[in-house]
Every structure is written in structure tokens, then in C-alpha cells.
Amino acid sequence: MAKKRPLVSTLAHLYPPVAYQISGEQFLAQCEADARLFERIEQQAKEMLGAISPESAGVMLSDWERVCGISTNLAKSYEERVQRVILQLNAIGGLSLPYFKRLAESIGYQIEIKEFSPLQNDLPNAGDIPIQHAPREDLIFMWRVTVLNADNNVIYFRAGQSLAGDRLVAFGDRIIEEFFKDLKPAHTYCYFAYPTN
């Protein structure tokens, strides 16, 4: 006979032994079913408690994304999705360059932003941007975001944090790039540079 689980035994002893045959086969089968239900309720309660924070939300991260107005993209790693939610929560508004730097720092990015000024003959290097033939007056609304710590943003698969389907190692800074594309002024063109030194 299979050994009874502790919860089944505990549930069986909650009933009055005079009214129930607590060692009966059908009675124990009912206790087993009840024990499974209570274990599922406990697991769901833990998931709900974890949903208080995006870092521990697990399967409920999509609810955080919905509240923040972010479309859920399961092609991204769990950690990338969490960082995007945190960015959105920290984004209280602003258009200044220091505002964007502070937001980037809030999730661990060190950046420099260069705002070009054609009026002072301050233009990007030839071939540095995909809109090389843009009129000079359009270049006044151009930013170059240099991500200084790009090498530190390698995302490794981690047990307990990553999900099935995530890459073992992911490179790049899609999070910061998407963040700028979403929050930058609409008339501003923004491109990214990653120093190799």
C-alpha cells in the first residue's frame, strides 16, 4: 500500500473518528482529492503573493505588462520583459536629456546622449546613421545614445528567473533601444552607438 502524504493524514484526523472510518479506502481517496485541491490553492496563493512585484510575478508578468500598456512579447526573455516593465513604471514623464539618463540608470545602463546642432556645424559622422541624405534642418532633432556598459548587459539563462524557451545567453540592448523609441519626442530621430573599448 502506498504511503499516505502528511496532508492526507492530517485531513483524515480532522474528522470525528466515531462518525467516519478514517482508515477506509473511499474516505482516504476523498482526503487525497481534498489534499490536492488545498496544495493547488497554496501554490496559487504563493503566485499571487509573488505578483506584488514584477521581478517575482512569474506567469502574472503579463498582467503587469497590460497595466503598463506594454504588449506581451514571449520571444523576449523573462528578465528583458521585467526590465521593460520597471522602465515603464519609472517613466513619470519628461523630455530633457538628464531625465532620459536617470531612467536608463534606474535599470543599470550608463549612457551618454549627444544632441546634434547643424546650426553650429555639429553633425554626425558620414555613414554613422541610416538617414545620411536627410536635409540639414532635420538633423537638429537627432540624438546619438552611446551605451557605455553594453558588455555588462549580457543576459544569461538562470534557473528560477528564466523561462523555458529563453536563450542561454542573449546579447544586445533591445531594452534600452525600445525604451527610447517609445518615450523619445516624436519628432526626434534616435540612434545607438556601442563603444568597443
Key descriptive features of the protein:
two-stranded antiparallel sheet; 10% strand; 197 residues; 3-stranded mixed sheet; 6 helices; alpha+beta; 38% helix
Describe the structure concisely for a colleague.
This protein has 197 residues and is of the alpha+beta class. The chain contains six helices and five strands; from the N terminus they run αααααββββαβ.
Overview of the structural elements:
The structure is a single chain. This protein has 197 residues and is an alpha+beta fold. The protein has helices at residues 6-12, 25-50, 61-68, 78-90, 97-106, 174-183, and strands at 111-115, 142-147, 155-156, 169-170, 189-193. The strands form 2 sheets. The protein has a 3-stranded mixed sheet with strand order 1-2-5, covered by helices on one side. A two-stranded antiparallel sheet has the order 3-4. Helix 1 (6-12) crosses helix 2. The protein is rod-shaped, with a radius of gyration of 27 Å. It starts with 5 loop residues before the first helix and ends with a strand. The model has no long low-confidence stretch (mean pLDDT 79).
Q: What portion of the residues fall into strands of 2 or more residues?
A: 5-15%
Side by side, the strands of the main sheet go: 1-2-5
Summing up helix and strand content along with how strands pair, one would put the structural category as alpha+beta
Helices and strands, in order, run as HHHHHEEEEHE
Low-confidence stretches: none
What does the average pLDDT come to?
79
* Rg over alpha carbons: 27 Å
Main β sheet profile: 3 strands, mixed
Tell me the overall shape.
Answer: rod-shaped
